[in-house]
Specification:
single chain, alpha+beta, N-terminal domain of MutM-like DNA repair proteins, Helicase, Ruva Protein, domain 3, 2 domains, 4-stranded antiparallel sheet, 22% helix
Amino acid sequence: MPELPEVETVRRGLEPSMAGQRFIAVEQRRADLRFPFPENFAARLTGRRVDALTRRAKYLLADLDDGATLIMHLGMSGSFRVDSTTPGLFHHDRSKDPAHDHVAFRMSGDAIITYNDPRRFGFMLLEPRATLADHKLFRDIGVEPLGNELDGALLARLFKGKAAPLKAALLDQSLVAGLGNIYVCEALHRSGLSPRRAAGTLARADGSPTDRAHRLASNIREVLGEALLAGGSSLRDHRQADGSLGYFQHSFRVYDQEDEACPTPDCRGTIKRIVQSGRSTFFCGVCQR
């Protein structure tokens, strides 16, 4: 499933073609994806202007001029591509089967935006913007890790007293939004912290942050920032809106590097793989404590 950098990369790729533009025509090619499309989906979008295209956790949000918000989730294999109604513009070769093109948006700015999803685990919803924060998808989502709010003090406050493994706490979307398996593994390695360490050890008895908390917060932001610059990680299905692949996977230090030598200078450890909560965890048992 695409993680936060991949979703944010898609948002940035779509924004020039969506924000400030109107839906001239909407072609809905099936009744459902993961969930049924909203009733009269195409008709409700046609003619509407996109005031802003934002992201919350792993959700893309298109705020419309009638007060509604188009919620878009990529699921396991969803992707968007941007083409043009003018031949030769915005065209990018892709390996995606057009049989899995399920929705097409023709925008006023000469772009055709197509949603492709072979596994159909993605979805699109239309909800009132005014009550979006109370919607079941968003009401329990935690802090955005790309914002200024994420720091050592926040991690200490969130994790104080928690005996859960540090990796599990970081993947808890009610605490920190959008973090996924890949970038948690990478941030923990850069921070020298074991994924099995109790999350509560990042806070002192009085609740103040330890040096570990500050280091981890900094490395989370650093890893996510580098991944965004690289266009995310393309392991199976992720593509950017222009059809190109992300390439942060070439910078992985531990993820999917089982049995490789630890890249930490002067560390003689080997990357190990364990399973935590049904997910693969990659780490070095020597330098991550």
